[in-house]
Amino acid sequence: MALLSEKMTIFEDTKTNAMKKFIECVPNYSEGRDKTIIDAIVAAISAVEGVKVLDVDPGEATNRTVVTFVGEPEPVCEAAFRGAAKAKELIDMTKHHGAHPRSGATDVLPLIPVAGITLEECAVLARSLAKRLYEELGIPCYCYEAAAFKPERKNLAVCREGEYEALKEKMADESRKPDFGGPWDAVAERAGATNVGARGFLVAVNFNLNTTSTRRAMAVAFDVREKGRKNPSGEGWIPGTLKGTKAIGWYIDEYGIAQVSMNITDIDVTPLHIAFEEVSAKAAARGLRVTGAEIVGLVPKRVLIEAGRYYLEKQQRSLGISEQEIVKIAVKSMSLDDLKPFNPKEKVIEYLIEDKKKGLAQMTVEGFTRETASESPAPGGGSVSAAMGAFGAALATMVANLSSHKRGWDARWKEFSDVAEEGQALLDRLLSLIDEDTAAFNRIMDCFSMPKGTDEEKAARAQAIEEATLFAAKVPLETMETALKALPLALQMAQTGNPASASDAGVAALAAVAGIRGARLNVRINAASLKDKASAQSLLDRADAIEAEALRLEKEVIEEVNNHIEL
């Protein structure tokens, strides 16, 4: 960050944003072939302000479309209502046929907590939505999973038992009638019943088999799904091997293969990669092979990160690589691109809702340096210091990764992987500090633009400038603290890493220290403008201590490196 008399944009307070309630809705509509109908339903959802449609996934064989949208609770519930209203208008269940179980035009309507809201709160919203669907649209509704009024209805299969064809009979049965709904009528006949629920993230995945046999696919599904299969003796059930899963086998004309179609309802109990491995094992036991997997709809990022890390560990490969590379390992290990291209940017929830604006850290090296060289005062020294620190962490990480793959050092892969993981975390934080430093500077400049016509305005302006300046001093101090943590890694790699990369460990230390010393100047220039001199001195004392420790570690690293490269 440069002089305080220069510029900046308002820094987004992530803590404030985290307090917002944020939910996801993933309705399944009983239409997967008529694009006009699908587009009309999606348009009804998208018309609600504050809602973002992330994915529309139609299936021709299932005659079913999965739509995913997110937002704050009120607009999401309104969008869910409007989507159901449009589906009621356009879909006639008396004419519907498809491979997937279904009971209504809007078949399932789950609300899923994302941030700032609990599953229990989503259950209350779901019940309210179901009540409104019946009262205003006449659509019968069952409440399932966390929203269930009856314990047995926590299971969606119980609510949907007999599918649409059994609905008339069920509505006449006191024990099986919908939670919201009257007698069978013209609305129920055309729209069927909607299952409204609240649940955690559900991963819908199809495992591709090298067979066309539905019977054999079903056998594998019975082997693994939690419910299992009926006991041949007729008494009870033999449970499957995967908790928190539901599965069936089917044949898909579109691909010309059979699949095990699975819903993973608890990804903490059964992660995707464990399901893939188990289905593969059970298929192999029956003379089949899983050729890949097809994710239906979207998944949380952690599903792929956990999978990538799992397969890297199996290979005894370093886990300290970029998030993009870990995801790539997951995609290739489970052949998620077996049937069609798999683009994580289009399938991972976090990637779809992230800010599309590229910051300084996303620029090319040339773009960043030329932007720094321009007449614009930001990015300035603070952002450049964070970038230098990031290069230091990156080089230490590189030496660790190279060492983990060195021939003859296979037994030490975990030792170096741990260092690389720590280095990646530091690298990620320092990259974010590049933009945070520039944002902090812009925040100060916004405060200078505040009105100062009255005494009250002057006081508010002065207070805002003081708070922004304090924050602007703390950002480069965090850069110093983060970059300092890269130096012990550089020292460790200089001492125990691949000797051929000793010079890289040395440059890592030099870059980290350059970032630390540069950031210290930015702490000083901002602290000097603070009226609260006690806070200013505290910042300066901490900065001085970090710089002294950094210089000490730098000396050790360089001495160690020189011992490796003496002629």
Characterise this structure.
- With 567 residues, this protein is of the alpha+beta class.
- The protein has helices spanning 14-18, 35-46, 73-90, 119-137, 156-159, 167-171, 186-191, 214-224, 272-285, 301-314, 323-333, 344-347, 349-353, 365-373, 381-404, 413-448, 455-484, 486-496, 502-527, 533-565, and strands at residues 22-25, 28-29, 51-59, 64-71, 106-115, 141-145, 194-198, 203-209, 229-230, 237-238, 245-252, 257-264, 290-296.
- Strands 1, 2, 3, 4, 5, 6 and 7 form a 7-stranded mixed sheet that branches. A 4-stranded antiparallel sheet has the order 11-12-8-13. It has a two-stranded antiparallel sheet with strand order 9-10.
- The radius of gyration is 29 Å and the shape is globular.
- Residues 1-19 have low confidence and may be disordered.
Question: Could you provide a short overview of the structure?
Answer:
This protein is of the alpha+beta class and 567 residues long. The chain is 52% helix and 14% strand.
> Using DSSP, what is the number of strands?
13
Question: Structural class from helices and strands?
Answer: alpha+beta
- Span between termini: 41 Å
Look at the structure and give the mean pLDDT: 92
Q: Residue share in helices?
A: 40-55%
Q: Quickly count the helices.
A: 20
Largest sheet: 7 strands, mixed
Radius of gyration: 29 Å
Beta strand %: 5-15%
Question: Spans of 5+ residues with little confidence (pLDDT < 50)?
Answer: 1-19
Instruction: State the shape.
Output: globular
